[in-house]
Amino acid sequence: MPEAVTLYEMGPRDGLQNEARQIDTADKIRLVDQLSDCGFSYIEVTSFVSPKWVPQMADAAAVLAGIRRKPGVIYAALTPNLQGFERALEAGADEVAVFASASEGFSQRNINCSIAESLDRFRPVLQSARTAMIPVRGYVSCVTDCPYDGPVGPEAVAEVAEALVRMGCYQVSLGDTIGAGTPETIGRMLDAVLARIPAGRLAGHYHDTRGRALDNIAVSLDRGLRVFDSSVGGLGGCPFAPGAKGNVATEAVAAMLHAAGFETGLDLDRLARAGEFAHRLRNPT
Ligand code: HMG
Ligand code: MG
Q1: Which of 16, 129, 174, 256 could be a cystine partner for 134, CB 3.0 to 4.6 Å?
Q2: Which residues of 6-25 are buried (b: 16+ CB within 10 A; e: fewer)?
Q3: ipTM of this predicted structure
């Protein structure tokens, strides 16, 4: 039996959050519905953040209300604080994710608080999620480089990742937010994190700004990681990370994994059609 690798699909959230043109809610729903038929077990649908900060995600509840829910698929959303969690719960998110940074500069620009303050905000989210029996994933951004502070030390990443696991996140996704990581810097970062957290509780979230994301996935596979985040068509970027391009393309990761003998459960033909649809959303003619 081939070994499985799971791809968490980020397109509707990380992929679309940076779009300047407001995309119709109905089109976002169509994208999620197409992705539901591709074989994913996790789709990050939207985020319950401040609509003043990220207007593109203002229709989060309407998107979750409109999608066709395929059994076996987790429909997840980002929640930066308790207010976001309560909105997500009411809208029927199956799972939520809190998001921290390993660098102070990005933490301030992205969520308007220090790293320590962000962790304090997440604790009540984790408590409420436990009561509501909603699993919580954690992100750490800027795991090798920060657009404001420059290079980020591996120990800073390990510290924040460990704090997220300790407060109850079932998994921590390690974000190369601006795609500046290389196999060497990602490898050093992973070694520090793996000294504290087993590979089975980690995921790689690599943006492909400089075309190194597949190489970074390869070094992560070597170290035992089996979950990666990707966006159909390589969509995306972060509004608070200047120059950040999209997540690594799901199609490219799936092709690489299949060629290496891993199983993803994804239907590449359907994925290609979803990718074309996603590109038309960004570039309407
Ligand atoms: P703030 O302004 O400091 O918040 O923003 P506040 O608590 O002072 O509240 C100010 C106003 O926002 C209030 O409204 C609140 O009600 C409202 P007002 O009284 O002025 O009318 N508010 C909210 N509204 C809706 N939903 C909420 C919410 N919270 C407060 N949840 C905050 C702090 C975190 C909210 C803000 O900075 C924010 O929304 N940031 C969004 C950042 C974001 O979405 N970034 C992109 C996603 S992260 C990412 O892409 C990285 C990742 O992909 C991994 C990687 O690549 O590294 C995950
Ligand atoms: Mg991202």
Answers
A1: 129
A2: bbbbbbbbbbbbbbeeebeb
A3: 0.98
Could you list the beta-strand ranges (E) of the chain: 6-9, 42-47, 74-78, 95-101, 136-141, 145-146, 150-151, 171-176, 202-206, 227-230
User: Which one-letter amino acid corresponds to residue 158?
Assistant: A
52-92: pLDDT as tens digits: 999 999 999 999 999 999 999 999 999 999 999 999 999 99
What residue numbers bound the domain in which 196 lies? 6-282
* Maximum Cα interatomic distance, the chain, rounded to a whole number of Å: 50
Q: Whose CA is nearest to atom 20 of ligand 1?
A: 52
Mutate to test the pocket of ligand 1, among 19, 44, 46, 50 (most ligand atoms within 8 A of CB): 50
Nearest CA residue ID for atom 2, ligand 1: 112
Residue 1 lies in a domain: no
Residue type, 41: S
Query: Does 118 map to a domain?
Result: yes
Per the structure, the count of domains in the chain is 1
Residue 111 lies in a domain: yes
Inter-residue contact 12 to 33 (CB < 8 Å): no
Q: Does the active-site annotation cover 38?
A: no
CATH of the domain at 21: 3.20.20.70
Residue with tokens 């229709």: 59
Per residue in 1-46, pLDDT (tens digit) is: 789 999 999 999 999 998 989 999 999 999 999 999 999 999 999 9
